[in-house]
Model the fold of this input.
Amino acid sequence: MKKLGSKKKVLVVPPDYTRYHSKAGELTTYAYDFYKEKLTDILPALGTHSPMTDEQIDHMFPGVPKELFRIHDWRNDIVTLGVVPGSYISEITDGRIDYDWPAQVNKLLNEGEHDLILSIGQVVPHEVIGMANYNKNILWEQADPKASTKAILSVQLTAWKESWAVPTTL
Done:
């Protein structure tokens, strides 16, 4: 973290308690120990999960003050950064999917005036979307679950359809 240079305001986006064993809590605690009062916000990547309880926060993030934790309110705290056009989505999916996808994040990421945002966690297989953490913490877990769910279902249905495709030649 020293290589990142001096920071004034840091936001950490770790996975929530469902990813306890990823050690992201331990990594977040290290970030807190390093940045101290400059780490001003922790926004767990909740997605469609319930907010973490005080007990879960204490267990996963020992020694990190609870007042740093923010709850992702997808009904009221979403901003749209842009839209991926349906024509592009259709192009890259060979016409299987054709709708606009809003690139959305929690407004804290866009309006919080942080000079460093750390998405903490290991990139690991995920049972629904394929891979967990990294950009998923930002573009899926901090967005409107309706848009995320639509995209997830489209990916799954496309994969399912391809796996059951009838061969055209023998």
Notes: Residues 9 and 113 are 7 Å apart (CA to CA). DSSP finds six helices and seven strands in the chain. The chain has a mean pLDDT of 79. The first helix runs from residue 24 to 35.
